[in-house]
TrEMBL record:
<dbReference type="GO" id="GO:0016432">
    <property type="term" value="F:tRNA-uridine aminocarboxypropyltransferase activity"/>
</dbReference>
<protein>
    <recommendedName>
        <fullName>tRNA-uridine aminocarboxypropyltransferase</fullName>
        <ecNumber>2.5.1.25</ecNumber>
    </recommendedName>
</protein>
<dbReference type="GO" id="GO:0008033">
    <property type="term" value="P:tRNA processing"/>
</dbReference>
<dbReference type="Pfam" id="PF03942">
    <property type="entry name" value="DTW"/>
</dbReference>
<keyword id="KW-0819">tRNA processing</keyword>
<feature type="domain" description="DTW">
    <location>
        <begin position="2"/>
        <end position="189"/>
    </location>
</feature>
<dbReference type="InterPro" id="IPR039262">
    <property type="entry name" value="DTWD2/TAPT"/>
</dbReference>
<keyword id="KW-0949">S-adenosyl-L-methionine</keyword>
<comment type="similarity">
    <text>Belongs to the TDD superfamily. DTWD2 family.</text>
</comment>
<keyword id="KW-0808">Transferase</keyword>
<dbReference type="InterPro" id="IPR005636">
    <property type="entry name" value="DTW"/>
</dbReference>
Length: 203
């Protein structure tokens, strides 16, 4: 028999994260496009981001029929948070004059799945791209990163927002993420964690 699930955070009721999820306002609007393979992932960080930001929306799918509408909300200019040719380093966005806030479009999935989303949705691939500064260290201690600077979706959003809106701290978004990781490390036991993933200082 399956365990009762929280309908909001999709975690088992016994491990619900909702009390740790903040409600943060942002000038930047965040649109998360999640590959279906990520929905039931134990560390569904895109959902945590969407729940923690009042100006965010999460869509799940491979092909988004209403993408033209999603990418053009009145009063915003869309940018794709994804590395690639021509991607510009993200910089602080000054809210002056007619300077429109960003619609930050974030594909969520493995690198392979995220590239598939771009391939299946040409409008997405055509967006101007922005990328994060190099050197960020992920707190995702249960995964071997594919390369230096590889972050979870939630960590990438937090870093992007803190560059775009430096007067606001978005660190509270990471609280449920860190609790989730701590819970999984505790469940597997310190010896198993150290053998497969970590270093003693990570415990």
């Amino acid at each position: 028999m399956s365990r009762a699930q929280c309908p909001r955070c999709l975690r088992p009721q016994t491990h619900c994260l909702c009390e740790l999820i903040p409600q943060l306002e942002s000038r930047t609007r965040v649109l998360l496009l999640q590959h279906p393979s990520e929905v039931n992932h134990a560390l569904n960080t895109a959902r945590l981001a969407a729940l923690g930001l009042t100006n965010a929306e999460l869509r799940v799918g491979e092909v988004f029929e209403d993408l033209a509408t999603l990418l053009n909300p009145p009063g915003y200019r869309a940018r794709l948070l994804f590395p690639g040719e021509g991607a510009q380093l993200i910089t602080a966005h000054a809210p002056l004059g007619d300077d429109l806030p960003l619609l930050l479009v974030v594909p969520d999935g493995t690198w392979r799945k995220a590239r598939k989303l771009l391939h299946l949705n040409p409008l997405l691939a055509q967006l101007p791209r922005i990328t994060l500064p190099e050197g960020a260290v992920s707190r995702y201690r249960l995964r071997k990163a594919p390369g230096p600077g590889a972050l979870s979706t939630l960590e990438a959003i937090v870093q992007a927002l803190e560059v775009l809106e430096p007067a606001t701290s978005f660190a509270p978004l990471l609280r449920p993420f860190e609790a989730l990781i701590e819970g999984q490390i505790e469940a597997m036991g310190a010896d198993t964690y150290l053998k497969n993933h970590g270093r003693p200082q990570d415990l």
